[in-house]
Amino acid sequence: MWALSAVGYRRLGAVGSLAIVVGGWFAGKLPVHDPWGLWTDHGSATKAVAAAVAYVGLTVLVVAWWQYGRTASTVRDTLVTLAWWTAPFLLAPPLYSADVYSYIAQGSMVVEGHDVYTVGPSALDPGGIGGDAAASVGNHWRDTPAPYGPLFLLISAAVAWTTGGTIVPAVLAMRLVALLSLVLIVWALRRLAREHGHSESRALWLGALNPLLLIHVVGGVHNDGLMIGLMLAGFVLALRGQWVAGSALVGLAIMVKSPAAVSLLFIGVLVHASATGPQWRRWAKGLFAPGLIACAVAGGATLISGTGFGWLHTQGVAANIHTALSVTSDLGLGLGELAHLLLDVDAEPVKSAVQTLGLAVALGLIVVLARRAMRGSMTPAHALGLSLLVLVALSPMVQPWYLLWGMAVVAATEQYGRFSAVLTVLSAALVYETHPMGATPPYGFALAGLAVVLGTLAIRRAPVVPPGVRLPGRRGPECTAEDQQPSTSAASPTPAPQNAP
């Protein structure tokens, strides 16, 4: 029956995407003022109904994605499905976040000559370029310096200059950047999967077709998509032996968001494995060469942008905002309040100490993963994916879409198993944490928790794997999908088991 086929789920997901956009048109993160009159507030009653429509559409999309994962779809089928599900988002207002207004405002500040690393969007003239975007920025960010690198600020400035900072064209231009980022992610996922002998369509299903990516990178226009795309592309080049070009691309990714720097460590593992000569020279080349190239690219981008090196001092500004998904911030806040009650000491230093300890533990685990990759017990790419997930789990600020940093890598480097199943359930759950207008209401966490329970029960009864794919520990053919064509890169070490430590 076609309704239970890949084509049927493709159409069902497209309906879900369209419902999200229709609901978001009235209940998304609308600007304070839109001179074109397209994205305007229609009142609380309309907004409530529209939000319900968006939540229903989101559920339809998640179910369609979940069921699509059970079909033996080819790469072409999955790419067509991705196009169907992405298309409705292209002309939508900002969904699930107000960050795009910050991007436009910060780009306008660059155009106007403001120092984006010392002042926030509130410095803009309300009646000038970017004024409407600045007025629409979330309260936390209006007086906060930009935490992004010069490359992204150059892109934002180009958008602001081209559109005059007018809301609708500026948002759509930033969404075009997000769409190009998605194309780059797709390109890199396919090649990473091929290098590791895994199914390209499965990698695309978890890493690109994922509703978490669609609503936050395409719908929410988060620049994490650009960081992930550049980082993955750089790592693919490194796997192919082109580590100089790969390190340069990672340097550009860092100039969007700094977490991409983690990948330099694992490019170093590849460089060490392929280097010749004395052991000390191989170690020095692996440890320092990729970083030096990335630093040169970062320095060049900074000088070209003219924004200065203030980005070196603003990387921690996000930690000042508490997010309930951060385990270390929650624990630190709780211990701080307890210390205040029992010992009458300031709670903030306790919270800061716990957050710092969490980052230190994350760094230690990343080093352990790098050592395992060096010894050949896992591939460098898979170790990178796990490292990014560890970094997110122990960061002082965690947003739902941060899961995409490492998941995009793991999707292409791990044979679908228990760990991928956990990522699948988390993806289906975290989409509910955020309201279409960007808020995080209590019922969002309740819906996410319910999705975790239902997803876990469903995946235990019937794992989300297509016909012909064998789960670890089960008998049967490994895979019969037509796109399963293993290849080996001369630059990568001997393939090793891909299970998480």
TrEMBL record:
Keywords: Glycosyltransferase, Membrane, Transferase, Transmembrane, Transmembrane helix. It is a multi-pass membrane protein. GO terms for molecular function: glycosyltransferase activity. Residues 484-493 have a biased composition (Low complexity). The lineage of its organism: Bacteria, Bacillati, Actinomycetota, Actinomycetes, Kitasatosporales. InterPro entries: MptA/B-like. Belongs to the MptA/B family. The chain crosses the membrane at residues 12-28, 48-66, 78-96, 170-190, 202-219, 226-243, 249-271, 283-304, 352-370, 382-403, 444-462. This is Polyprenol phosphomannose-dependent alpha 1,6 mannosyltransferase MptB. It is found in: Membrane. It comes from Streptomyces durocortorensis. Its main location: membrane. Residues 469-501 are annotated as: Disordered. It comes from the Bacteria.
